[in-house]
Amino acid sequence: MGMESSAESPQPVRVVMQAVGGWVGRLGRIWVEGQIAELNRRGGTVFMTLRDPVANVSARVVCPVRVLEATAPAPQAGARVVIHAKPDFYVARGTFSLLALEIRHVGLGELLARLDRLRRTLAAEGVFSDARKRPLPFLPTTVGLVCGRDSAAERDVLENGRRRWPAVRFEVREVAVQGDRAVGEVMTALKELDAHPDIDVIIIARGGGSLEDLLPFSDEALVRAVSATRTPVVSAIGHEQDSPLLDLVADVRASTPTDAAKRAVPDVGEQLQLIRQLRDRGRRVVQGGIAREESWLAGMRSRPVLASPLREIDRLTEQVTGLRDRGRRCVSAALARAEDDLAHTRARLLALSPATTLARGYAVVQRSDGAVVRSAAEVERGETLRVRFAEDSITVTAGDRTDDEGDR
């Protein structure tokens, strides 16, 4: 329940501080995990700053020397610990602190289990997905480098990068690469380099170390920060066997800082050799194509139609003339055969024609209606008949019928 107060009836400072102390005291004893950022001894008391491993939050811890010495080995600055403490509020100064009752080191197995749980969680969210990884630029003009101060990793990256491509430039940010300040400084440097308009790729490099030394590079906040960058990131933490979570989220994972320089910066000698090979290959392809076209052109020019065009015209003229003569012979032979057939048909027609028969002295007797008289018995006495000869005809009147048997 809140304290009653108003502008006319304010509460004294001592009352407010005593109330806050009472509320803090009701929290009871609690187990707290963090990383020791500072550790100072003053007489029989040890004053520590316990920092949250993820957020930028810390708490003051007051620890009797006997409690610190009861932990073997004695914790040092940078150690991950779990403290059983009692919250305490110092009313006289209005400060909050934790009174340490017991200190325990965070075991390696527990750290590995926590890292595995974090890895599975981030993987389920797609933070490590290959679909979001970006390819490195072929020829970066400026490379951002996050590394330790005066570290071997920095020398390896700079020397190998400049040896491979002397024109490449580096923007170096030296930070703490272990301890309680590492995560914050690396994230600050990463954000600064990612916002730089000239930087094409960022390398985060550190030499080898123990699991505890490399813990900052498995920090969830740092992993998510790398995932959110717009610039491709190369992770070069520790040695080949080391695998912090930063390796999984980075666009490219390098086994060592030297390997990171090789992956980020192309070798000028190798590229020039590749250009020479491609140029020679292109020259061979072009020369081969020209040779094939020249061979085809020579073959076309050697053909008779191109070698001697008039000879081909003469040959075709002879062919046309031969076909014309052959056509004429065929037509003449066909006309001759047709003429012979016509003559034969005419001769047969003349042989069978009634006019030919009449020309030999015969005549045709017809009635007035044109009917041919075939026998005298068909004619009546006095009937008018027409007698047709080869050239002309006459009209006669039938008389008596006579029998020609005596004339035979």
UniProtKB/TrEMBL annotation:
<feature type="domain" description="Exonuclease VII large subunit C-terminal">
    <location>
        <begin position="306"/>
        <end position="396"/>
    </location>
</feature>
<dbReference type="GO" id="GO:0008855">
    <property type="term" value="F:exodeoxyribonuclease VII activity"/>
</dbReference>
<keyword id="KW-0378">Hydrolase</keyword>
<keyword id="KW-0540">Nuclease</keyword>
<dbReference type="GO" id="GO:0009318">
    <property type="term" value="C:exodeoxyribonuclease VII complex"/>
</dbReference>
<dbReference type="GO" id="GO:0005737">
    <property type="term" value="C:cytoplasm"/>
</dbReference>
<dbReference type="GO" id="GO:0003676">
    <property type="term" value="F:nucleic acid binding"/>
</dbReference>
<feature type="domain" description="Exonuclease VII large subunit C-terminal">
    <location>
        <begin position="128"/>
        <end position="300"/>
    </location>
</feature>
<dbReference type="GO" id="GO:0006308">
    <property type="term" value="P:DNA catabolic process"/>
</dbReference>
<comment type="function">
    <text>Bidirectionally degrades single-stranded DNA into large acid-insoluble oligonucleotides, which are then degraded further into small acid-soluble oligonucleotides.</text>
</comment>
<comment type="subunit">
    <text>Heterooligomer composed of large and small subunits.</text>
</comment>
<dbReference type="InterPro" id="IPR020579">
    <property type="entry name" value="Exonuc_VII_lsu_C"/>
</dbReference>
<protein>
    <recommendedName>
        <fullName>Exodeoxyribonuclease 7 large subunit</fullName>
        <ecNumber>3.1.11.6</ecNumber>
    </recommendedName>
</protein>
<comment type="similarity">
    <text>Belongs to the XseA family.</text>
</comment>
<dbReference type="InterPro" id="IPR003753">
    <property type="entry name" value="Exonuc_VII_L"/>
</dbReference>
<dbReference type="Pfam" id="PF13742">
    <property type="entry name" value="tRNA_anti_2"/>
</dbReference>
<feature type="domain" description="OB-fold nucleic acid binding">
    <location>
        <begin position="17"/>
        <end position="103"/>
    </location>
</feature>
<keyword id="KW-0963">Cytoplasm</keyword>
<dbReference type="InterPro" id="IPR025824">
    <property type="entry name" value="OB-fold_nuc-bd_dom"/>
</dbReference>
<dbReference type="Pfam" id="PF02601">
    <property type="entry name" value="Exonuc_VII_L"/>
</dbReference>
<keyword id="KW-0269">Exonuclease</keyword>
